[in-house]
């Protein structure tokens, strides 16, 4: 009994019994031209439906790719920052090794360079006092006198042994001013400056992908 359907009277009659309305009967025969038109229409509708489905899938796929990239970029920025830190510290270590080797080979070079750089400041000074480590004091006297002569310094040069100085550290005192050199202290200052720069930069360096910072 559940399959019963209410009968619908499609044909309507007027008061005199004539047919007032009668729905058109379904067409059962089509011309070849009509068949081709129906096929073309069905094909176009199917093509539109297919394209719509493909575009929807593309939109979903692009949204997923964007979400994955959004999650990956912060981690990539962290990796890049770690790489910058490692590279900077490696460069600093290499620089220290090269500087140490150069100082071992040419230990008098820093004091000669200091005197030459201060030539204008010390030219009128009556005396130049140099404080250096005890094991270097004696060897510096000749180097200092030769360098002073080359720059035209005619004052007295006095080298004092100072046990508090490291092997290559020294100070120059010329009355109106002074200068100092300590390779260990200089290396420490460079390392501290590097660490401060890395800390200030943090993860705010130039973007990995130009324009991605927005």
In this structure, how is the largest beta sheet organized? 4 strands, mixed
The beta-strand count equals 6
Output the helix-strand order: EEHHHEHEEEH
Regions with pLDDT < 50 over 5+ consecutive residues? 208-212
What fraction strand? Answer: 5-15%
Question: How would you describe the overall organization of this protein?
Answer:
The chain is of the alpha+beta class. It has five helices and six strands; from the N terminus they run E-E-H-H-H-E-H-E-E-E-H. A four-stranded mixed beta sheet has the order 4-3-5-6. The protein has a two-stranded antiparallel ribbon with strand order 1-2. Helix 1 (about 30-105) packs antiparallel against helix 5 (about 185-200).
Sequence-ordered SSE layout with sheet pairings:
Blueprint: E1 12-13, E2 19-21, H1 32-105, H2 109-117, H3 119-122, E3 127-132, H4 134-151, E4 156-161, E5 170-173, E6 178-181, H5 183-201
Parallel strand pairs: 3-4
Antiparallel strand pairs: 1-2, 3-5, 5-6
Helix pairs in contact: 1-5, 2-4
Condensed summary:
The protein has 214 residues and is of the alpha+beta class. It is 58% helix and 12% strand.
Spell out the key features of this protein.
single chain, 214 residues, alpha+beta, two-stranded antiparallel ribbon, rod-shaped, disordered C terminus
């Amino acid at each position: 009994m559940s399959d019963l359907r209410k009968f619908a009277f499609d044909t309507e009659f007027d008061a005199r019994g004539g047919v007032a309305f009668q729905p058109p009967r379904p067409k059962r025969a089509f011309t070849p031209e009509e068949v081709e038109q129906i096929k073309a229409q069905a094909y176009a509708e199917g093509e539109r439906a297919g394209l719509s489905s493909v575009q929807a899938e593309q939109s979903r796929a692009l949204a997923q790719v964007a979400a994955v990239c959004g999650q990956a970029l912060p981690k990539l920025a962290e990796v890049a920052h770690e790489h910058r830190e490692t590279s900077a510290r490696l460069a600093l270590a290499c620089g220290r090794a090269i500087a140490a080797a150069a100082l071992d080979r040419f230990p008098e070079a820093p004091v000669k360079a200091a005197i030459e750089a201060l030539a204008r400041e010390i030219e009128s000074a009556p005396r130049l006092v140099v404080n250096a480590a005890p094991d270097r004091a004696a060897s510096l006297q000749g180097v200092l006198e030769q360098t002073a002569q080359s720059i035209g310094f005619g004052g007295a040069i006095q080298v004092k042994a100072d046990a508090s100085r490291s092997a290559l550290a020294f100070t120059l005192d010329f009355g109106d001013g002074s200068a100092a050199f300590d390779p260990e202290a200089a290396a420490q200052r460079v390392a501290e400056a590097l660490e401060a720069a890395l800390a200030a930069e943090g993860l705010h360096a130039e973007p990995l992908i130009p324009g991605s910072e927005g």
